[in-house]
Amino acid sequence: MQDHSLPSRKQQHVDLCVNDDVTFRAKTTGLERYELDYDALPEIDLADVTTDISFFGHPCSMPIMITGMTGGYADAERINTMLGEVCDELRIPMGLGSIRAAMVDEAQLPTYASAARPERTFPLVANIGAAQIADWKNTEPRLMHVLDSLGADIVAVHLNPLQELLQPEGEPRFRGVLDGIAALVRGTDRPVIVKEVGAGISGAVARRLVGVGVHGIDVAGAGGTSWAGVEILRRDDGQRMDHLWDVGIPTAECVREVASVLSTVVPRPLLIASGGIMSGTDVAKCIALGADCCGVARPVISAIMNEGVTGAVALLRTLELHLRQWMFLTGSATIADLRHARLRSSA
């Protein structure tokens, strides 16, 4: 019988993402339906192009972050150490996997803290689940202790009702989550991001999140890793749940809808596009659709596991290069300019 303990679950998640095909089967990100409009008269030099952004006041070299992946089991310390080295070298934000394990067992703190060196040059995003936030009274003291211990700059809350529904040890209890998020926003001086894990955040959900004052939304749309698929593969109860493998809103549609909602909000929350981001072209399209930056996860952890820090840095440098090329070809000297680049839809 499969071990369903929290550390074992975290290990299984990484192993499945690296070694198995857990992508969406029939659904894509939707980014292939958009094409950046080529500008034959860009009126800039390639040398003028800069990919620098500010991420909640932290200067970063490109609009790409490594989104939260792992922590809470033995090998996560090694992985997070390497991810931290990548982010240090590139000066990009890093997300941690769910810190619930450290809240339950403080001995797990080093598996996250390996990335949280005081001398780091990048902003660190800690990550906690919606089910824990809903139980705010019991969660608050432990959460704040772990955030302080890690020196986290930003806190993210992940919404994952689909994953919790399918996870063998899942907790599909989401009553009170919005109130819990509101309490977190009031109770911390850290910026609060709300994110999905790969099934997407719609414009309607974004509007409710804005209503409680969140500072950022990571749409984490469909088209990349299917966490429904991951949990379906983990099940050992004989029940096949493949009809839910492809549930989710494509990333491109999430970005378009949420950007429209955020366009009228002052100050405007940060919009992060993730979910199947595989190339610099994907990054450029998401920014032109309205995102401020993009998140990548599975391609980076695959590179880390197979080629180490050097491989992950090379992967992200390639994304940056291709992004800069598209910025030049659309006459966009800055990321702010790229947000106004024209997109043609083939739909």
Mind sketching the topology for me?
Blueprint (H helix, E strand, L loop, with lengths): L5 H14 L14 E3 L16 E3 L2 E3 L3 E3 L9 H15 L3 E5 L1 H5 L5 H4 L10 E6 H5 L1 H15 L3 E5 L2 H6 L10 H11 L4 E4 L7 H9 L4 E3 L8 H8 L16 H12 L7 E5 L5 H10 L3 E4 L1 H32 L5 H4 L4 E3 L2
Parallel strand pairs: 4-11, 5-6, 6-7, 7-8, 8-9, 9-10, 10-11
Antiparallel strand pairs: 1-12, 2-3
Please describe what this structure looks like:
With 347 residues, this protein is an alpha/beta fold. It has one domain (6-345): Aldolase class I (TIM Barrel), CATH 3.20.20. It is 43% helix and 14% strand. It contains 14 helices and 12 strands. It has helices at 6-19, 76-90, 100-104, 110-113, 130-134, 136-150, 161-166, 177-187, 203-211, 227-234, 251-262, 280-289, 298-329, 335-338, and strands at 34-36, 53-55, 58-60, 64-66, 94-98, 124-129, 154-158, 192-195, 216-218, 270-274, 293-296, 343-345. An 8-stranded parallel beta sheet has the order 4-11-10-9-8-7-6-5. The longest helix is centred in the last third of the chain and has 32 residues, at 298-329. The model has no long low-confidence stretch (mean pLDDT 93).
Label this structure with key terms.
about 350 residues, TIM Barrel, eight-stranded parallel beta sheet, two-stranded antiparallel ribbon, 14 helices, about 15% strand
Number of domains: 1
Low-confidence stretches: none
* Rounded Rg: 19 Å
H-E order: HEEEEHEHHEHHEHHEHEHHEHEHHE
What is the CATH class?
Alpha Beta
> How much of the sequence is in beta strands?
5-15%
Task: Predict the CATH topology.
Answer: TIM Barrel
Principal-axis shape equals globular
- Alpha-beta content class: alpha/beta
Keywords: Cytoplasm, Flavoprotein, FMN, Isomerase, Isoprene biosynthesis, Magnesium, Metal-binding, NADP
InterPro entries: Aldolase_TIM (IPR013785), FMN-dep_DH (IPR000262), IPdP_isomerase (IPR011179)
GO molecular function: FMN binding; isopentenyl-diphosphate delta-isomerase activity; magnesium ion binding; NADPH binding; oxidoreductase activity
Binding site for FMN: 67-70, 98, 127, 195, 225, 297-298
